[in-house]
Amino acid sequence: MRKNWFYKLLLSYLPALFIITLSLLLIAFLSINELTKKSSQKASQELSRNLMKLLDHTLGGFDAMMQYELLNNEKLKGFFRDTADNREYSDIVAAVALKELLANNPGIESVYLFRATDQMVLTPSTLKSFGQFDDRTFIGNRMSSPDIYRWTARALPMREGQGVVSLAKIADFKYNSLLVVNIKAQYLREMMLGMYDPEVTAVHLFDAEGHPILGANDQPNAQETAAKQKVGPDTATSAYTGWSVRNEPKGAPLLNLVSSLFYVWIAFGFVVIAAGIAWFVYLTKQNYRPVQTILKRIAEMRNETSPDEFEKEKDDFHLIESTIERLFGESITLQEQNKENIVYRKKHVFLHLLEAASDEEAEPLVLEAKRFGFAPQAGGAIMAIVEIDQFAEFVHQYNRDQYLLKNVLVMALKELAESKPFQLWPEWVGSQHLAVMFALQDATADEQDVQSMCEKLRHWVEHNLDFTVTIGLGFHVAELKRIPGSYRAAWTALQYKPSLGGNRIIDQEDLDGHSKEDLYRHLNDIRTLCQSFRAGESHWETALDELHRTLRSRLFAREELINVMNVLLYHLNKEIDEMSGPFLELWNSGVRQQLQESLKRHETADDLIGAFRTLLREAFQSMQELRESQSTGALIQNMKRMIDEHYADPNFSLGYIGDQFGLSGGYLSRLFKEAFGVRFVEYVTDVRTEHAKRLLAETDEAIQQIAAAVGYTNSLTFIRVFKKQTGITPGQYRKDAQQD
After folding, report:
1. How do 201-206 and 177-184 pair as beta strands?
2. Same structural domain for residues 498 and 360?
3. Which tens digit of pLDDT belongs to each residue from 69-105?
4. Three-state SS annotation for 553-616
5. Of the candidates 456, 489, 512, which is a domain's last residue?
6. Are residue 254 and residue 156 in the same domain, yes or no?
7. Residue 707 to residues 102, 141, 700: CA-CA distances in angstroms?
8. Can you give the CATH number for the domain in which 664 is found?
9. How many whole angstroms separate alpha carbon 13 and alpha carbon 276?
10. Residue 195 is part of which domain span?
């Protein structure tokens, strides 16, 4: 593509743009520099004040310390007493006090005492006469100075180049004895350096006479000595010492020079910008001419030859844009429609292929799948269905994000299938189920590869998402037209998820490895469980556990599980409906509805029976508390205990219990019926039948012996009652129990 016009425009505009940009940058730089200068001045003022406050605070602290020692340190005061009995001892004690003062104050370079009575000077290590002391000049100046308490910056004569700040305090007003403290200039300088960067800011310190002090090496250097004290907004003066601090940024002369020409540079920048704008206008007129030519030609193509209509166009590029859109609009629209149609068509072919009833019906759909790029090679194909576990909770928790998570599931599946020896085709066949068609690409790929990849998907979902999936695998088919059978097999495998459990892979071997049984043969056990629950017997939970073990050992579909649990719920409701008002009210207050909701919410036998067990345990506890709270509760429980103890007695009857409690049999019968919902005789029969079941299952005793053990003298009566209660004879029950 030729770009002559592009380069022409670029070269014509770039110089003007470059000049204008530089002018704007210059103006911005000057403006920022001016603002920076003002901010720097404020910062300098604040820095000077803070440095001076720091010096005043530090020197004032030493001053207060000296005053405190003179007033309170008996060791020092003993040195100045002219009546000391033991002068040598007082001098040694005072020297020790001076050493302690040095040790406790690292900023002090040296300290000594001058006793005017005998003209002696005491340091922490020596005692000399005034004439032999190196610093006698300073002592003499202080003694003759009218302002003796002033801080003085100087160099120690005994240490050349060692700068100090000294203060002399009168310790004895009678003889004008002195305490002299020399503060290290290095100590003060290090404190000040903590508040500014010497590479950026130069700080000058002047004494009360305007002489510079505190140079880089404890004393002012040549540059600092030549510096003049200039009182300005960035100078801070101490009322305590009379010293002044002034700071200025390094390189300030250059910045001041630039700032002095600020308005000149601003005016120059605006002049350049105005010239650039004029140049832009000129270039725009020159470059607009080709556009005018294009517009005229487009107008001729659209038969818009009227000059008046051409001049009325609000947007000069409207004709160009509309012409291009007319050329490409229909083509783009058709392409987008074709993409959408492909997505819907692909899913349509997928669903109809799975539902094909015969090979003849599937063959044209297989051809369609090949046109979409899905065609198994020599390896055949396998069908899998991914089911989201606990879907009701999934929808409730991810009401808005469930479609995003489903898309994440599909993307994870595709990513795991990369570089695998098969091609996959996933489509959602329902809100909870993702059907995946695996096309094995070579003879080396088999069902184990597919199962391994499905296991990786299950593991990835479990550890990276907040839900789990169960995957049903169909059988391998040699041709794609046989895939409907594999799909139905995968769907059938998922139906046994309540029995086998969720968050796993269910293949055809899992179905073949479990026995199937009619679950309805345990309906009598369900009725017995419900009666025990109603009667307040705790072994109802044992019966529920036994039902759970039976379900776990058998293979059943979800529909069968729901039917069995509906039977259990039906008998529970029937038994409770026959109880008295408080128990029925307790049951209807929420237990009945919660049990019904559990049937919809849980998908596996373990989860469903676990939910039932929790709800029934809470309801049973509440019913027991209700029984115990009633006035006749204790009497009823005693009757129940007597039944458990004397059920094997053939002569045991309601009259026998009445004699024990001194109550009529009719009254006791009515109380028993109200408490347990069954008649006394029926309850005793149930107890004897349960014990007979246990003996039949656990012992080899004869029927006659078992009949006598549970209170029946006649074995025929026992057999008749047992069959009425359970639906089968004792011998058949023993046979079934031994098979289990």
Report:
1. unpaired
2. yes
3. 888 888 888 888 766 568 888 888 888 988 998 889 9
4. CCECCHHHHHHHHHHHHHHHHHHHHCCCHHHHHHHHHHHHHHHHHHHHHCCCHHHHHHHHHHHH
5. 512
6. yes
7. 110, 132, 13
8. 1.10.10.60
9. 10
10. 1-260
Q: What one-letter code names the amino acid at 316? A: D
Measured CA to CA, the distance from residue 91 to residue 75 in angstroms comes to 9
Residue listed under structure tokens 């604040």: 46
368 with 491, same domain: the answer is yes
Is the pLDDT assigned to residue 384 strictly greater than 70?
yes
Distance CA 534, CA 574 (A): 10
Dihedrals phi, psi of 464, to nearest 5 degrees: -120, -15
Residue 315 to residue 108: CA distance in whole angstroms: 84
CB atoms closer than 10 angstroms to residue 465: 15
pLDDT one-digit tens code per residue, 565-591 = 888 888 888 888 877 667 778 888 888
Look at residues 512, 531, 547 and tell me which one is the last residue of a structural domain: 512
Domain contains 410:
yes
Q: What is the band of 219 on the pLDDT scale with cuts at 50, 70, 90?
A: very low
pLDDT at residue 262 tops 70 = no
Give the pLDDT score at 264. 72
Query: Which residues make Cβ contacts (< 8 Å) with residue 116, sequence separation at least 6?
Result: 172, 175, 176, 177, 178
- Cβ(462)–Cβ(503) below 8 Å: yes
709's tokens: 């053990």
653: region left, alpha or beta (phi > 0 left; psi from -120 to 50 alpha) = beta
- Judge whether 93 and 169 are in contact, CB under 8 Å: no
Residues 240 and 56 sit within 8 Å (Cβ to Cβ): yes
Q: 542 lies in a domain? A: no
Q: Are residues 345 and 256 in the same domain?
A: no
Question: Do 255 and 358 belong together in one domain?
Answer: no
Q: How far is CA 124 from the centre of its chain?
A: 65
Using 50, 70 and 90 to split pLDDT, how confident is the model at 1? very low
Q: What is the pLDDT of residues 28-55, one digit of tens each?
A: 777 777 777 777 778 788 888 888 889 8
* Alpha-carbon torsion (505, 511, 514, 518), positive or negative: positive
Residue 328, domain member (yes or no): no
d(CA 1, CA 112): 94
Which CATH number fits the domain that encloses residue 482? 3.30.70.270
- Distance in angstroms (rounded) separating the CA atoms of residues 226 and 202: 14
Domain count, the chain: 3
Q: Enter the tokens of residue 336.
A: 């987008």
- State how beta strands 177-184 and 163-172 pair: antiparallel
Task: Decide: 473 and 505 in contact? Cβ < 8 Å.
Answer: yes
Return d(Cα 270, Cα 19) in angstroms, integer. 11
| CA–CA gap between residue 664 and residue 675 (Å, rounded) | 17
Residue type, 525: D
- 98 and 192 housed in the same domain: yes
Residue type, 431: S
CATH at 76 = 3.30.450.20
Q: For 335, what's the count of Cα atoms within 13 Å in the CB-facing half-sphere?
A: 5
Domain co-membership, 378 together with 500: yes
Has residue 78 been placed in a domain? yes
Chain mean position to CA 378? 49
Other C-beta atoms within 10 Å of 340: how many? 9
pLDDT of residue 281: 76
